[in-house]
Amino acid sequence: MAMKRTLDSQLLAWKTSKTRIPLLLRGARQVGKSFAVEKLGQTAFESFITVNFEKKPDLAACFTDLDPKSILSKLELALDTRILPGQSLLFLDEIQNCPQAILALRYFKEEMPALHVIAAGSLLEFVLNEGSFSFPVGRVQPFYVRPMSFLEFLKALGKDILVEAIEQSSIHKPFEPIAHKRLLELVRQYLLIGGMPEAIQAFVDTHSIAETQQIHARLIETYQTDFSKYASKTTNRYLQRFFERTPKLVGEAFKYVNVDPDAKSRDLKETLQQLSWAGLVSQVYATSASGIPLHSQAKFEKFKLLFVDIGLMQRFLRLNTQAFWEENIAQINSGAIAEQLVGQELLTYQGFYQHPQIHYWHREARTSTAEVDYVIQTGSQIVPIEVKAGKTGRRKSIQIFLKEKKLPLGVKISQNELGIHKNILSVPFYLISVLPNLIRELTEYNG
User: Fold this and answer.
1) Whole-angstrom Cα distance, residue 339 to residue 406?
2) 20 to 30 A Cα–Cα from 156, which one of 116, 127, 264, 393?
């Protein structure tokens, strides 16, 4: 069964756009980049041509010069197929193995704009960071692909009625208790299965959590093997260490010493940048939240980390799966699982055409400290979000933030049903996808 994803409609919109330029798909390996492009090529074009530089490295010889006509002529001979502008989709996969092809993308835009070209590379950053050539900025459109969201997970399971209910949810019409309970059970499933398409497909086919765990283990090994392909021996050690430590550091203020006390922070900083751009970790920067955009208020030296996927995270941590069914979601692994879930969802719903960014707020004072798990911008409104449970300090922090910033509304994401109490909107974990709609609805109602 082909799983429906939001990126499918976005890729189709790109196909028909009059201002289209070549796409460069960014994101971790196995998040569904190649599958989505193949689906587009086979359903929306007369012909689909794939050049996979990992499987067929000899095809790199077709890109010895940067002239699109010459490149296509060589590819047609090598592949024994016609490549026709306006009719064909040319897919350059694992493009990090052919730096010349990366450079060629700008000339496709300038000299052959009618040809649809999409490129993808899982660990492209290891080539880009060599600095031996300039990236064709402005002539190639980055397109960021992340693991499947909870909403896409529900669609894959065939829960169309629940998806429709989520998309039409309103603060004035809470879910019935039976639906609320069922959706929380599905959230718990998602925590274990995660958003990697292969793991979700395996669960759809087998209904076996154990089967998905095996896939998680294989995906983790694939990432680690990739590091050794593209990194030097020293860099590979840092990458392995950083990758292995990140699941244990989610939700904490980051310190390089917690990754490797013997490594230089300069080396680890470069490693973090590579992992971040490769989509394997995400940085949640502290922000003063004194204005918008929030990123302009970011404190880049202070941040927390998120892992690539909640399913891979729990596999790495080897948590007792029974806890996922019995404990309060907000308290599993001291709240780190819930913080990963919410952060991962917030990142996923930001769209495809910009590198996703999320923030948190932290204030240190002589008398007390205060921290808000996430701060988001909805329209022109700044909204603090509390996730972790069980600490009075957390509840005070969000009120301190609202008072200090003179803001009308905060959000608490938890197992509780949808509702509003004073100035705090309570949102269950399964409604993160419609959080902006709920905030807008409440704002308009009060306004």
Assistant:
1) 25
2) 116
